[in-house]
Structure formats: structure tokens, C-alpha cells
Amino acid sequence: MTVVFYHVDAFTQDAFKGNPAGVCLLTKPADEKWMQNIAMEINLSETAFLWPLKDGYSLRWFTPVSEVDLCGHATLASAHVLWESGELNRDSDARFYTKSGLLTAHREEDWIELNFPSEPEEKTIPPQFLLDGLGIEATYIGKNRFDYLIEVISEAAVRRIMPNWTLLKKIDTRGIIVTSRSTSPDYDFISRAFFPSIGINEDPVTGSAHCCLGPYWQHKLSKNELIGYQASQRGGMVKVHVHGERVLLAGRAITVMKGEIQI
């Protein structure tokens, strides 16, 4: 018996850019330990496992070391695979039942728009080794249920961060998002995101981080529609539309590999 596996680069239209995700199409629920082992074997930042339900799909996400409650790029990759493979009609929205509730994906030509929960931060006082671990000075520090959000003075300050992973692994959150206004007229803000506690030192493009970045920059820039660029080595763009308690995240995706997993 085999399971079909896809390797998809999300939040990009170019292969080998954006954020790679694994997508496994299953016919029924799978054992949690098996899914974790497959995610460890695939060894991408997240691998998505989905199987059909009456009016949608159950969707779970695993890093190489743990399950996560919310993941944007692997959800975008999952929707892309459903439409590309013919599993789902291209005119139909994808409906995913997850640990963060119902998430949907809508296709508009080669763009995929995800409907995600807003995850705004609140101002907080962090442990000192957080800033020491990043080697930065902050103009603002907030925290939501997942991550710290840190604004710094400039795009250059975001780009030159060289983290101390030993210190950052001590942080008791899923991750750390660092952001600033963009110097490019093509983007409103840029960011980088670090998740060493769940086995991902730097995530290339993080959809769920934009559930926090969107509301934050909406308030600062007084606009509901924004474009963010995540300045990792691979890099990727996310269109963000803040709509009350929901955040719409739009990106593109491309399949770079397809294979089979032996059961």
C-alpha cells in the first residue's frame, strides 16, 4: 500500500523559492505517531496530512518534531494539491477542519486566498535573553497565543539578524517574529520568523505569522490591505487583507516533486 506525497513550494510562483511543504493525501484518518514519523522523514518545516470528510477535509500539520495548531503555507499547499490533482473541482472552495477551527481556501486564477483567524498581539515584557538571542534592539514587543512579535527600527535591522539558537531555544513560545516597515514600494512591511522550539530555526515564509502581522500593520499604517515580504534566504510574498476577526492571506504555489510513501 502507498500514500501519494507532494512537495509544494508555497507563497511563490517559482520553484525553489517560498516555503516548501509536504502534502499527504490520505483516504482515512492516520495514526498520530505515523504522521509524526513521516513528517520527520520528509523533514520540511511542515507536512500536511488530509483526508476527506462529508463537506471538506480534515487537516493536520506536523513539523519534524511536533504537531502545530496553525500553519498557513502547508494549508495553501494542500489546497493547491487538491485542485491540481483533480481531487477537488477548480471552481469549488477547499474546506479544512483543523485544530484552529474551519479554514477555507478560495482559488482566483493562480492565486489562492486563505481565510484564517486573526491573531493580534498584546504588548508584553519579554525575557532579556530574547533580545540577546536576536542581537537586536526593539521599538516594540508584543505576544499572542503563539509567538512574540518584535518591531525593529529598519529593514536593514531585520535582514542582518544572526540568531543565537541556544538562547532562542529557551523561549517558551512557538516562535519569534521580527518585523519593520519596508523600504521597497512593492511591500508595506517585511519580516523574518524563527521557530527553534518546534524544530524550525528560520521558517522561509510563514502564513500564520501574518495573522498577527496583518492586524499589527493595519493599525500602524491605517490600511486593511497590505503586502508583506518575508526576508528569508528563499523569500516570499504574502498579500494580507484584515477583515474583522479574520485575516485573508493570498499567495501562489508550485509543485516541485511527487512521489509515493510505502506503508
Structure commentary:
The chain is of the alpha+beta class. It folds into two domains: 2-117 and 249-262, Diaminopimelate Epimerase, Chain A, domain 1 (Roll), CATH 3.10.310.10; 122-244, Diaminopimelate Epimerase, Chain A, domain 1. Helix content is 20%, strand content 43%. The protein is built from six helices and 18 strands. It has an 18-stranded mixed sheet that branches. Strand 13 and strand 14 (200-203) form a beta hairpin. The longest helix has 13 residues, at 73-85. It is globular. The termini are close together.
Task: Supply the CATH superfamily name of the largest domain.
Answer: Diaminopimelate Epimerase, Chain A, domain 1
Count of helical regions = 6
End-to-end Cα distance: 5 Å
- What integer is the average pLDDT? 97
Order of helices and strands: EEHEEEHEEEEHEEHHEEEHEEEE
β-strand number: 18
Task: Name some characteristics of this structure.
alpha+beta, 263 residues, 6 helices, 18 strands, 20% helix, Diaminopimelate Epimerase, Chain A, domain 1, 18-stranded mixed sheet
A few lines on this structure:
The chain folds into two domains: 2-117 and 249-262, Diaminopimelate Epimerase, Chain A, domain 1, CATH 3.10.310; 122-244, Diaminopimelate Epimerase, Chain A, domain 1 (Roll).
Q: What's the SSE blueprint?
A:
Layout: E1 2-10, E2 19-25, H1 32-42, E3 46-53, E4 56-62, E5 67-68, H2 73-85, E6 94-98, E7 101-108, E8 111-117, E9 122-123, H3 128-134, E10 140-143, E11 147-151, H4 155-159, H5 165-168, E12 175-181, E13 189-195, E14 200-203, H6 210-221, E15 225-230, E16 236-243, E17 246-251, E18 253-262
Parallel strand pairs: 2-3, 4-6, 11-12, 13-15
Antiparallel strand pairs: 1-2, 1-18, 3-4, 4-5, 6-7, 7-8, 8-17, 9-10, 10-11, 12-13, 13-14, 15-16, 16-17
